[in-house]
## 1
Amino acid sequence: MHTYRRTAVAVVLTAALSAGTAACDAGQRAMDCARLAGSIASSVEQLTLAAGDAADAEDMGRFTDAIEKEAQKIKDDTGDADIAAAADSVLEAVENVRESMETDENPDLGPLGDAVGELTAVCTPG
């Protein structure tokens, strides 16, 4: 009888620890996603200021590179379809900004800001 109870307790504790670890992992991923989304938002703000100040392409390229790198990291690290889709939207918007820069057009940063807002919303826990 005691062996049965010990086995049952061990199984319950193992399951509880596994669930707790999974919850911590999910919570950590959500926090990492939110942190990176905030960093992307900051880079978009810097890109917007650089575009408004008619900064050179190197500065704008550096900001778009940072945004792309962080959005790709979020996409690669998540198992969440909504987060991956939002990261894809950011990546697509960054590509559109780059294309505008290459043709010497004034880039429309509105879609990029919208995509980052969407990413921030889906990354924010709760």
## 2
Amino acid sequence: MSRMVTTRDDIAAVIALYKANHVLREISAQTGVALRVVQNLVKRFRDLGEEEFPAPLPKSGRPKLLSPRTLKDISRQVRSNPSLTAREVKERKPSYESRLVTLCSTSPAR
């Protein structure tokens, strides 16, 4: 089961419905946000003193090395020339140097 990302718009909608005295199940049904997430958002809202919206929690995990734009550019290059190696891609675009250095190994293959 994949985890849904709760956006600021979702949080604002949940809190607005909560302030309008809607039941948590109704809020979940109307916004499409899981009931447990609605419960956690309302609890965090109450804990903050009901003056400010709770911010989305930071997502865990390792950050991406390459941006979607860089990945798209690299995949375009590889599609046009399938025999292209990572080292050649790096040589063609020096701006990728810092990002691709960890992807290109200098040790010989075993």
## 3
Amino acid sequence: MPVMRRSKIRQRLLIMLVTGIGGMAAAAISFASAVYDAANPVPVPVIGKDQVVDTGRWRVTINGAHMSSLPPTGTKPFEPKRFLLVDLELDNRSVASSNVFMNLITIKDDVAPLQPKPTYYLARDKWIASAINPNMPEKLVAAWEWPADRPEPQTLSLAIGKQIYKPRDNLYGAPNWFDDGEAAVVELPVTQAVETTEQ
């Protein structure tokens, strides 16, 4: 076999060896980094009301919370009920209208109601909220029906979810927003509302 040909074969083998070692080292570093991040999570900031939370897809401001015997529509239920109402403002930062905010806020307290997800109402017309348009902040009311057998809360801890944007996801190769833990926890007092009843 000519010397030049042997030299080329050795060069290719060396390149393959270096590439393989480099790939294994990169995989090991990535795995170690993931394990370290899982073992040492970044603490979630705890804030008060009226502070803007950047979740990636949304800007969220929790403005207050109160208990009420009326839902946000103002119509008295046939049977007496209690509602936990949270006033908030949402600003859609994406390029398209979206109603993917139903899982955005969760109650972290042990006294949380059995109904995990609130119903969202538009503050301006007291009706159930649908899609929020980009760059048009909207005031909303999140409503939980409070169980009669649980004491009404004096304070509240709300976890605000976080999302990240991927221009190309791993499954479909399409752009999308994905949940990414919690952006912040909002702690605030719960007050009693002055109520007016609509028949």
